[in-house]
Amino acid sequence: MRDPYLLAAGLLTGLAIPASALPHLSIVLPENSRFLWDLKQGSQAIVSTKIINSVDISLPQLSGQGFQPLKSSQPTVGDKNVSSVPEFSSQGLPAPTESSLNVSTQATGISLTSGNQLYYQRLAALKTGQIYTRLDSDNLQSLWESIKKRQLTYDDWKSLLALEARAIAQGQGPNHLSILVGDSLTMWFPKQKLPSGTLWLNQGISGDTSSGVLKRLGAFSATRPDVIYIMTGINDLLKGTSDEAILRNYRRILHRLRQEHPHTEIIVQSILPTRRAKLSNSRIRHINIQLTLIAKQEGANYLNIYSWFTDMEGNLRPELTTDGLHLSQEGYDVWRTALQQIEYKVTQREN
Length: 351
Hints:
six-stranded mixed sheet; 8% strand
């Protein structure tokens, strides 16, 4: 382990981490699932007699003396009673609307230009005893500029993510935790767009594959997440991995996650479409169909957001991507809308 990791790891003792028009959302459920959603295409569902256009649970300014229970207009999420988890009601959630997306024309906060910059900002946050998803952007900017930088490797990213997971495990307290697991699409999810009212742990690494994700699940095995979101596979396709190998890795990922997090909602997100000629969207759709079945068999949920991102030709909508593969700020706004709905429903269930 290199010196930066030793320094960051040393700061983890006693660590204090502050909590500072689309198609319908369809989700395929395993048998005996606690998710009981009925989201009908073309309709706007109602929750508690009110149309929910967006979810925005405000967080108070905290002192940084460790995690504190979230205080907001929504009920506080306390420690889970894993022996008795209440079920969702059968009421649906609303289809996203233009107002709920709140699409921004430009990124807010720091404009990150490289994976190196993102990495060193996150490492800098750890050195202050914090997680980057809860650290003010201006502070991140000054911190990362002060760190000696070098060329990064895949192992560097794995070590950083393991440190962040360890920090979360030590300081989560009663806070609701959601984990994003995947490749560059996940890694670059803007922290300011993550649904509020939740502590987020981002476990995405650029260029990672389904086999790579499988090998590093142990990094966050000590955490107590309420929800784990998974999206991987696009780099497998770029590298020529067979459909069978991708699906086999997914099954192993879900099996292990179910063993290590038996009371967590595990959500397989559909692989997104692309605008790359070498990547067949029909093949992606076929894999997604198989993932639906695997998720159900392994006791996970399948979240189908594929069609949210497609144009009339079935390709990734040009305004939602920067290069035909990675997402633009508008693309992350669409993805965020799906997460908002799930996070709201999970919070309501637990309260």
